[in-house]
Amino acid sequence: MEKPRTETCSDFYLFGNTEIQHAENFFFHGKHTLTFKAPTEDAIIDLKAFGLETYLFCEDLQDELLSVFTSLKAFIGGLGMHGKTALFEPKVPAYMEAANINFMKWALNIELEERSTRKVEIPEENIQSGDYLAVMRLDGLDPMIMFGTGSRSGHSVMAMRFDGELYIVESQDAWYWPTHRIQRTPFKAWLRFAENCDFHVVHMPLNKEMRAKFD
């Protein structure tokens, strides 16, 4: 691999696809050889079909380290349901919230406004099967999903009634959530979990036409 030499960019590269990610710093100009070991059969299929993407970071080493530290602030915190420290409790710490708000403003041109009303109680009878609840958590992952998809939420759940009782159905694998994988959670319990881990939730009900068709 021959690398162009420029005066404005460092020699820090990220190589990857959906299965392989590798960062490499080149300190000397010239020809370099990298060997990648595919971790799974899927990685081999992906590699043959699409190859590897190459990203060049236009920063020096000091700026790279600063960027890594800034990124870590956006992702590390609020990791667990039962911890008693700022890092391993479900709540999003203030530094983490600020880092994600800054990222969304810089990368997505979204400037969040702090509202005086922090919590809105929605009567359970107003929520019916098929209603969509859009979720955003300021935890690094959700803003990154928003960045990649163009969405304004990072997690999607749906309301469903089973035998007259309201549940939330979702696929969930977060560390801070008590139950993993595809699941249904009683609505009131889900609200407690959502509040504990600082979810921002928007209720988007089906219109009358779509609700009549929903099965």
Brief account:
The protein has 215 residues and is of the alpha+beta class. Helices cover 30% and strands 22% of the residues.
Which helices and strands, and how do they pair?
Elements: E1 12-16, E2 21-25, H1 41-50, E3 53-57, H2 61-75, H3 94-107, E4 132-136, H4 141-149, E5 155-162, E6 165-172, E7 181-186, H5 187-196, E8 200-204, H6 208-213
Antiparallel strand pairs: 1-2, 1-3, 4-5, 4-8, 5-6, 6-7
Helix pairs in contact: 2-3
Please report the total strand number as a whole number.
8
| Average predicted confidence as pLDDT | 85
How far apart the termini lie comes to: 55 Å
How helix-rich are the residues, as a percent range?
25-40%
Low-confidence stretches: 1-9
Strand order, largest beta sheet: 7-6-5-4-8
Rg is 22 Å
**Element pattern in H and E:** EEHEHHEHEEEHEH
Count of spatially separate domains: 2
Number of helices: 6
What is the makeup of the main sheet?
5 strands, antiparallel
The share of residues in extended strands comes to 15-25%
The secondary-structure class comes to: alpha+beta
3D shape: globular
Verbal overview:
The strands form 2 sheets. A 5-stranded antiparallel sheet has the order 7-6-5-4-8, covered by helices on one side. A 3-stranded antiparallel sheet has the order 2-1-3, with no helix packed on it. With 215 residues, it is of the alpha+beta class. It is globular, with a radius of gyration of 22 Å. It has helices at 41-50, 61-75, 94-107, 141-149, 187-196, 208-213; strands spanning 12-16, 21-25, 53-57, 132-136, 155-162, 165-172, 181-186, 200-204. It contains 6 helices and 8 strands. The protein has 2 domains: 12-58, no CATH class; 73-215, no CATH class.
